Amino acid sequence: MKITVLGAGGKMAPGVIRDLADAPEVEEIALVDLESTRRVLEQRANDWGNNKASLVFADINDPATLRAAIRGSKALANCTIYYFNLQVMDACLSEGVHYVDMGGLFHVTRKQMPLSDQWKARQLTAVLGMGSAPGIVNVMSRYAVDRLDTVESIHIRDGIVNLAGQDTPLAIPYALGTLLDEFIMNPYVFENGEWKEVQPFSGSEEIDFPPPVGTQTVYCTLHSEEATIPITFKPKGLKHMTFKLALPRAFDEKLRFLVALGLGSREPVDMGDVAIVPRDFLVAVTDRLPKSSAKPADHKVLRVDVSGVKEGQARDIRVEMICNPYEPWDMGTGPHSVGVPVGVTCRMLGSGAITERGALPAEACVPPEPFFKLLAERNLHTAVMVKHFLNSESALLVVDSKNFNQ
After folding, report:
1. What is the pLDDT of residues 279-316, one digit of tens each?
2. Is residue 373 part of a domain?
3. What does pTM read for this prediction?
4. 344 and 118 in contact (C-beta within 8 Å)?
5. Range of the domain at 66
6. Largest Cα–Cα distance of the chain, in whole Å?
7. Which of 66, 140, 265, 375 has minimal Cβ neighbours within 10 Å of its Cβ?
8. Does 118 share its domain with 147?
9. Does an H or E element contain 228, and which?
10. Which residues pair with 161 in a beta bridge?
11. Are the C-beta atoms of residues 399 and 385 closer than 8 Å to each other?
């Protein structure tokens, strides 16, 4: 099969490229990006492509060249920033190509979901939000919900640390444009069956994650999961849903300071003869920073806690994954834990393992157990713990556990 990686020169694309290149069922990988990324793409194709990678240069804002670039692919991995999701979806729908993106930061996802009937009519699937969060956590939610008769709450916690010595002023974990929006835009929580808009960094909570992540303060931030999960699991009676994140502390503090100075603003600042958009300036400056030469030492815990009832008994189900740097590829946890799930999902679409059609969030179309088993091949292991309670006393009765390994 042929898979296209759009935005192949980006920060999260390496995990996608390497997963696809190491998968025997993938015969061709089209690395698509702007001409300005030629040197990066050539290096990635030579170093990681396993003689499968070809380079294609296209501009998303030129529909004809974009469509030509993706033509003939089974699936496309959209590794560009979420602003472009709708344009890329349109090109994929026109060319009959399955689609996977890394999320639409709530508001764009809400614009994508109404397109589902168009995709279903073409017998195509657009997976809206794949990576670690959104992505893995959505599928974890599906796994837990399927084991309950009714669901009361779903709470997702994502804790990240970076233990590497920092030889760069700002070690950015993923796309800075997305991070700025997460720091500025109001997030949502789902309470008592309704969405509630809250302030960024509100709802702080201390979470004891497994080592090496340890105890972290998580807070509300805008994410795609908040837009999709309450809709997907409404038939099960879901009343409460939250997503909270802890970023590496040093990065978090620095970016909060820069945002407080106004460097996340889209409002132009008049500098005499030139008007400068602060966030564009910040992104441009950070793009010029030296890349860290330190050995990857970032770690992440993805945790999904689901509460509900099965056969009249209260149950709590925790699904969890500890993500570490991937030594076979000398790759940090960020690009590995985000990119590999995208590659895996593209492969599942190409092979027919994903059969649901439409523009759908991951929890609505990705079968959990095959997905978890493919992730385990890349050292991303899913663990499940189920607690059963006595209705009358809410006392712990039994604990079941399961681990998905290769």
Report:
1. 999 999 998 888 777 889 999 999 999 999 999 999 99
2. no
3. 0.95
4. no
5. 2-131+341-351
6. 73
7. 265
8. no
9. helix 225-232
10. 299
11. yes
